Amino acid sequence: MATLDALHPAEPAPPQGIGVIAPADFTLDRELWRWVPADVALHVTRLPTCASRMTVQVAELLHDLAAVRQATQDLLTPEPAVVAYACAAGSFVDGAAGDRVLSRTIRDAGAPAACTMSRALVDGLRLLGVTRLGVVTPYPRAMNRRLVGYLAEHGVQTVWVDGVEVLEQIGRGDTPRMGGDGAQALFIGCTNIPTYDVLASLEELVGKPVLTANEMLMCAALRALDRPAVAWCSRESASDAPAASLTALGATTSPSG
């Protein structure tokens, strides 16, 4: 005869969780999910500010610490192991010091650990050995200058900056100039640009690693869980062939702060 225990098996352990704070108009929740293993849950909330027309002023609103504190507290019920701030511009707009304050605000609001998109990029570049970067963003010049300055604070030289029309040229099969030679890798800024399905073709066309905002953020959050990311977190260094087997971005490090 079946026992009551057999009829009512123990509940499975809850999945590890990542809290995500995104701008109000963020539309790529599904793309974030594709970067994480099936047994890791994402808990997403949104700031009250839209990021569709990014300016320094809008980025400052996305960096508003009271709004970030409230968003973090809204995520605490499912007990995420780390809270990730998913707005590139909001994390670099006030430089490295502002980014550190952002991470500290998330932790002070109750998150066990925090990572921001910009610090996730810096940590990923360090793991890959990249110090010279080509950048593609949808931002105006004033915001691009803030990004270049942020990277410089962390010892990364921005070799060139171009707009997202470069990606449209590549999509048509053209070979854009992309600001010249010298970059070890290409970074596509902004978490609201869909990139997951085109990374393989982009890396083949440019012949170097192509890193994206969502990729870097999810890799950093998963390192805080001591978990590897899926798919394109598979490069050992910037000198590897684009499709080389990967460990570096999935390596275990302390959470960004």
Could you explain how this protein is built, in words?
The protein is an alpha/beta fold. The protein has 11 helices and 8 strands. Helix 10 (199-206) links the parallel strand 7 and strand 8. The longest helix has 14 residues, at 95-108. It is globular, with a radius of gyration of 19 Å. Mean pLDDT is 84; it is low at 236-247 and 251-257.
Kindly list the characteristics that best describe this protein.
257 residues, four-stranded parallel beta sheet, 16% strand, Rossmann fold
Task: Summarize, please.
The chain is α/β, with parallel strands linked by helices and 257 residues long. Helix content is 39%, strand content 16%. Strand 7 (185-188), helix 10 (199-206) and strand 8 form a beta-alpha-beta unit.
User: What is the string of SSEs from the N terminus onward?
Assistant: HEHEHHEHHEHEHEHEHEH
Task: Tell me which oligomeric state these chains represent.
Answer: single chain
Q: Which CATH C-level class is it?
A: Alpha Beta
Tell me the β content: 15-25%
DSSP, total strands? 8
- Give Rg in angstroms: 19 Å
- Side by side, the strands of the main sheet go 2-1-3-4
CATH architecture descriptor: 3-Layer(aba) Sandwich
Give unreliable regions as ranges: 236-247, 251-257
The total number of structural domains is 1
Q: What separation lies between the terminal Cα atoms?
A: 56 Å
Q: Let me know the largest β-sheet.
A: 4 strands, parallel
Shape: globular
Q: Could you tell me the CATH topology label.
A: Rossmann fold
Rounded mean pLDDT score: 84
Number of helices: 11
Measured as a percent range, the helix fraction is 25-40%
